[in-house]
Amino acid sequence: MLGIFIGIAAVVSLISLGQGMEEALTATFANLGTDKLVIQAASTMFAPPGSLAVTPLTKDDIDIVRRTQGVKVAIGRLLRGVTAEHNELRVQNFAISIPEDLEERRLIVEAVDLQVEDGRLFRNGDRFKVLLGADFATEDNAFQKKMRIGEKITLNDKKFEVIGILKRISAPFGNDGFMLMDDTLRELINEDEEVDLINVQVEKGADVTKVADTITKKFRRDRNQDIGEEDFTVQTPEQASQTFGSILLIMQIVVIGIAGISLIVGGVGITNAMFTSVLERTKEVGIMKAIGATNKDVMTFFMIESGILGMTGGIIGILMGVAMSGFVEIVGKNVLGSDLLRANFSIYLIVGALLFSFFIGTVSGVVPAMQASKMAPVEALRQ
Amino acid sequence: MTESIIRLDDVWKIYSLGKAKVNALQGLSIDIKHGEFLSIMGPSGSGKSTAVNMVGSLDIPSKGTIYLEGKDISKLSESDLAQLRGKKIGFIFQQFNLIPTLTALQNITLPMMFQGINENERVKRGMELLEKVDLKDRMHHKPNELSGGQQQRVAIARSLSNDPDVILADEPTGNLDSKTGISVMSFLKELNRKDGKTIIMVTHDNHLAKYADRTVYLKDGKITRKL
After folding, report:
1. Could you tell me if A271 and A239 are in contact, meaning their C-beta atoms sit under 8 angstroms apart?
2. What is the pLDDT of residues A280-298, one digit of tens each?
3. What is the ipTM of this complex?
4. Per-residue pLDDT tens over the stretch A47-91
5. How many whole angstroms separate alpha carbon A158 and alpha carbon A84?
6. Is residue B20 part of a domain?
7. What's the CA angle centered on A75, arms A72 and A80, to 5 degrees?
8. What is the C-alpha R_g of chain B?
9. Angstrom distance (rounded) from CA A313 to CA A308
């Protein structure tokens, strides 16, 4: 039964976390809107943009995008690690750039749904001012204190004034990082040319997928690359969520594989327990047959018993799984500061796990139950 | 003359133990009438247990025919036999053979479950039977919470649950003290007289034979004497 509840616990906790994560990601991408594209240098899927890029994107690339038919606006943005100091603490954190141009800024504000909890957003000409993510509205952040408007923080040895604290958003790094004006961030990290991602707004009525295709072709030509050799990605919101979706799927398949092995081990354990039980109760089988139980009755009896054994394991497994993913969720929120690790228990998952454990138990009991049902009553009674 | 309920006609049971063959029954023929109280006696190894298994359709003969109410049952499938004995024959064993995990009431109602009788009916009939054996206050007790005599009374109640025509008692008093044994025997006798049940009892105790209408003595798988 140990195997059953380890297996079920693994399935329940990982599927619930997977579903929660999927939901969080879907919400994130839904925010981006369907008329927007994101271009990134390749190999940045698992790392913050810019950090591992082979050929970084540059301002020239933005021009290529701008010249593409169907593109309304193309905005280059930076997402870089900076060293932040405040409250006698020195931490590494992410800073995201906000465009200098008013139109472009308005677009980003709209796309990510930027709103301030306190203070204000950026204005033209703001220099060395910083917007803080929502985490800074409480004590639960890198500086371990609740931040106020007007306070000073140091980023890469330069003093910055806090002008606003943002409302919670669903974009990655949005709640625990800093937002700076583009020129300021470039000055801070001494970077003129490179951009980490290009946000593209497509013209009204233009086909997003077609525009993405055209940009891909132009980039390929510009970089002299064949199909499949690209060191950049052009993602539509659907593609992005599909990519995450497929990573999640692979993760879930691996998990289900592990859980499957545990369940098989558990099933073998139940089979063994049932063989012992049948042997110990040979006489009971004899009695049941003497008082009119048919082979089918005996078989059903032992299979139900075996199924209940499996389901008991399943119930313990579900409880363990719920506890485990609850724990992961708390750890995710408090230690990693990530809202992506969120457990989502659907009724289907719970009921499904319960039925499945009963099914495993029943199947595991088939052979022992058959053995019991085939006992000759006279022999069985003699035990 | 009353009709026969069970008839064994030249029944042989041959066991193979390695190369040796053991003839547990050698051409046994018995004709048991409706409403009869028959006792089968014999020393151990005489084949009386094998005989009672045949009579109770728990086993099938190697050779010969067994008739239950005129119907040849020696060639029925195991499941058909199970159905038949559940309905027609009630068993009482020396070891009581109650299911240890079930209560007295559950033990009594189990045979009815195998006949597909609904729960309300089962419980109703179970309560009546508990009353009949004077154990209504023990209905929720498990076998290990009952004395030997009480357990045997539960077993008797169980044997009656499907209202069978035949009660088969294999050494019913073998595990009881003499006083309890006498009360069990009286009860069986009463079932025979008042309710008209056919009772077939296996025993090696000469004193019990007096309760029976007729006694057959077995030795080496054959009848040696009839009384």
Report:
1. no
2. 888 899 999 999 999 999 9
3. 0.88
4. 455 455 567 888 888 889 888 888 888 888 888 888 999 888 888
5. 9
6. no
7. 165
8. 17
9. 9
- Provide the number of CB pairs (under 8 Å) joining chain A to chain B: 57
Identify all chain B residues contacting A376, using CB atoms and an 8 Å cutoff. Answer: 59
Q: Do B83 and A297 touch (CB under 8 A)?
A: no
What digits encode the pLDDT tens for the residues B17-32? 888 888 889 999 999 9
Q: Which CATH number covers residue B162? A: 3.40.50.300
Q: Which of A307, A304, A286, A317 is nearest to A383 (CA)?
A: A286
pLDDT tens digits for A302-331? 899 888 888 888 899 899 988 988 888 888
Q: Which residue of B has its CA nearest to A293?
A: B114
Residue B30 in any domain: the answer is no
More confident residue, B167 or A229: B167
Mean pLDDT of A208-226: 87
**B175, B98 contact by CB (below 8 A):** no
Nearest-Cα distance to chain B for A313, in Å, is 22
Secondary structure letter of residue B2 according to DSSP: P
Number of domains in chain B: 1
B191 phi and psi, to 5 degrees? -60, -40
Of residues A229 and B77, more confidence is placed in B77
Which position has the token pair 């499941």?
B79
Q: Which residue has the tokens 């419980």?
A: B123
**Nearest C-alpha of chain A: how many angstroms from B132?**
20
* A287/B97 Cβ within 8 A: yes
Question: Does A238 have pLDDT greater than 90?
Answer: no
For the question of whether the overall pTM of this predicted structure is more than 0.80, the answer is no
Does residue B13 form part of some domain?
no
Q: Map residue A334 onto helix, strand or coil.
A: helix
Q: Which of A18-22, A186-190, A324-328 comes out lowest in average pLDDT?
A: A18-22
Rounded to 5 degrees, what angle do the CA atoms B9, B12, B14 make?
165
Q: Which domain holds residue B161?
A: 35-60+75-226
Tell whether B29 is covered by a domain. Answer: no
CB contact under 8 A, A284 and B99: yes
Q: What integer is the mean pLDDT of A20-41?
A: 70
Q: Which residues of B touch A297 (CB under 8 A)?
A: 82, 114
Instruction: Check if B87 contacts A (Cβ < 8 Å).
Output: yes
How many Å lie between the alpha carbon of A298 and the closest alpha carbon of chain B?
A: 10
Structure tokens at B192: 């025979």
Q: Say yes or no: B110 contacts chain A, CB-CB below 8 A.
A: yes
Angle at A127 between CA A123 and CA A132, to 5 degrees: 75
